[in-house]
Amino acid sequence: MNKVVVGLSGGVDSSVAAATLHRQGYEVVGLTLWLMKGKGQCCSEGMVDAARLCEELEIPHHIVDSRDVFEKYIVDYLVSGYGAGITPLPCSQCNKAVKFGPMLRYAQDELGIGRIATGHYARITHDPMTERYQLRRAVDLSKDQSYFLYDLNQEVLAHTVFPLGNQTKTETRQMAAEFGLHTADKPESQDLCLIEAHGSMKSFLDKYLAPQPGDIVDQSGKVLGRHDGIHHYTIGQRKGIGIAAAQPLYVIGIDAGRNQVIVGDRTEAQNPDCTVQQVNWVSIAQPTAPIHAEVQIRYRSTAVGATIIPLENNRVKVVFDEPQFSVTPGQAAVWYDGEVLLGGGIIENL
Q1: Is 193 a catalytic residue?
Q2: Taking 90 as the threshold, does the pLDDT of residue 94 lie above it?
Q3: Judging by DSSP bridges, how do beta strands 214-217 and 260-264 pair with one another?
Q4: Active-site residue among 42, 43, 54, 193?
Q5: Domains and CATH numbers, the chain
Q6: What pLDDT is attached to residue 89?
Q7: Does the model's pTM come out above 0.85?
Q8: Which of 14, 167, 262, 308 has the least CB density, counted as fewest CB within 10 Å?
Q9: What's the pLDDT band for 41 if we cut at 50, 70, 90?
C-alpha cells in the first residue's frame, strides 16, 4: 500500500488533503509541527483539531516539536530583517526551512515513508524532457500559493503531493462536508500565524525591538515628521505615516543607517528594475542568457512582464516592462511562464 505523511495544521485544507488521500487508498500518517505557543492555526488550537481529525480518519498522528527551528528561521529572521529596514517574507522561508524539508526528513528517517503531502493550492508535474519537476499554479488562481513555494528544491518536489491543486476552495469546503470532517466550517486563517498569536505584526515586533525615534524625510532630506521605529514601516505604505500633506505620501525608502523613513508621492514609489538574490531556479535550469517572463513581486500582486538577467553569485536583475509600484526589499520576486513557476528570490535593497 502507498504510504504518505500529511502535514496537518488543523485547518480545512490540510484536513481535506488527508481525507482525500485516505479515501484514495493511501496509508496516511498525520504530522503536525509545534511551531510556537499560543493561538493560531499552527499552534495549540491547530494541534487539537489535527489530533481530532486523525481520530476521525483512524490514522496515526505525530507531533514534532519545531519551536527552536521556528524561532531561529522565522522569528529571528523577521526581527533582524525589520530591524535592518526591510520587510521579510516569512512564509516562503518557513516552507523551505521549517516545514517541507524537515517534514520530508522526518517521514523518511523516522517513519520510513518517502512521500509527504500538504493542503497547499499548487501543482507539481514532471517534465521527462528536462528530467525536472515543475511547480505550477493551482487551478483556483484566487487561492494559488505557488508564490510561497518558489524556494522548494527538486528533492522536495519529487517527494511531495498537493491533493488540492486541481480544485477550488469551494470544492474543498464541499468535500469537507461530504467527508463529515469537523473542520468543514472552520473559519479560514486570514493572517500570518505570528499575527494571529500576537494580534498584529506591530505588537509582535514591539516585543523584540525597542522604540528608536527618528526622522521622516523626503527625497531631498527635508524633515517632514518623526517616527518611533523604522520597523513599523514598509515600502509602499500610505496609512499610518502621520504626516499631513497636500497629496498622499507613501514610504519610498527606509535608511537603517540614518534611522530615517523616506516618503514621496506615488510617482516616486515606482521602480523600473530591482536586483534579486538567493535565487532558486525551480522548473528550469539556470539560464545563461536573459529571459522574458511574468514577475510577481507580492503574493496578491498581478504578475507583470519583465526581463530576467542572470548575474553572478546566484542573483538576477529584473527589468520591468513598465515601472512598478512598491517594489519592497525582503519580499520575494517570483517569475512564471504562464502557469509554470520558473524561479524566484529575495528582492535586495534598491
Answers
A1: yes
A2: yes
A3: parallel
A4: 193
A5: 3-197 (3.40.50.620), 211-264 (2.30.30.280), 270-347 (2.40.30.10)
A6: 92
A7: yes
A8: 167
A9: very low
